[in-house]
Amino acid sequence: MERHAGAIPSRKPIRFGVLGCSASAGRRILPALRGLAGARVAAVASRSRSRAERFATEFDCLGVDLDDLLDRADVDAVYLSVPSEERAEWAERVLRAGKHLLCEKPMTAGAADTRRLAELAAGQGLALRENMAFVHHPQHAEVAALVAGGRIGPVQAFHAEFRIPPPPPDERYDPDLGDGALLDVGVYPLRAAQLLLGPGVAVASVTLRDRGSEGDSTGHSDQAGATSGGQVMLVARGGVLAHLEFGFEPARHGRYSLWGPTARLTVERAFTTPPSWRPRVRIDEPGGAEQLDLAPADQCSLALAEFASAVRGEDPPNAPDPVSAMVETAQLLDAVRERAVRVPVRATAGL
Hints:
This protein folds into two domains: 14-131, 3-Layer(aba) Sandwich (Rossmann fold), CATH 3.40.50; 135-298 and 318-349, Dihydrodipicolinate Reductase, domain 2. The protein is an alpha/beta fold. It contains ten helices and 15 strands. The radius of gyration is 21 Å and the shape is globular. Helix 4 (87-96) links the parallel strand 4 (77-80) and strand 5.
């Protein structure tokens, strides 16, 4: 197996720095990093020194300033969890500092920046991953195997939806932040469509609900506000149609279904699956329904383990290239924005 220039030998621990003390970092990533074999958290950094020190106390590491973390010789890899509009800039700084990078999704808002960072990482001999943890859950491989085995017949349609409670208004509804729920939530069903339908997925139509945009007399707008939700229609190879829905809604809900000529296959809790959750795949057929119970798995820990393997230059041979998938998702996001019909919503609508 060929090792890249910046690979960390297996005998040495991978020393992580956490740049951005977000809620997700404290709730999921740092606890998972503590349990990752051959790794340790060396330092955490935040704009708020008090927040960094609080994280440092909780996770037994150093609390430092943002700029200081990139200069540290005892940091090999960085988990980046700053706001989405700042990720491209910080991702470049991390890579130019010679650190491997695991970045929250999506790493950038567009394909040009994502492709540029991918090329920079490759040129530096550094591992680069986007933290799309759900794709590492084994339930999706089980679904792919069922479909490949003809359990529902040739796929004819795909439906995915993901909704999460709205964040505080001052975090993502500022019109200057633009894409809002498209980047936070919509990227999940988009990536699921690519994962299960294969490459070559194309955008057919898009409707986005924008808070902060002014509509014309028909209610439509060409100017982007902060997106609070939407629907996307895709076309995949063989004429497979995909209908995706996403948004900030009061109740959390995430699932997908695949339709074939003989059955429909449905997965609940498809995107944010707790480690203790026992996944269920439901198959509805004319004669009744069957439920397949799968083993629980910690998708966050699996994502970190895959990144650690990449840092050590131990990518499995013939495995799908996650960097290419990351760039393809960014290209799809670009196409979604280009095709979008934007519908303004009132601030009082609760969306």
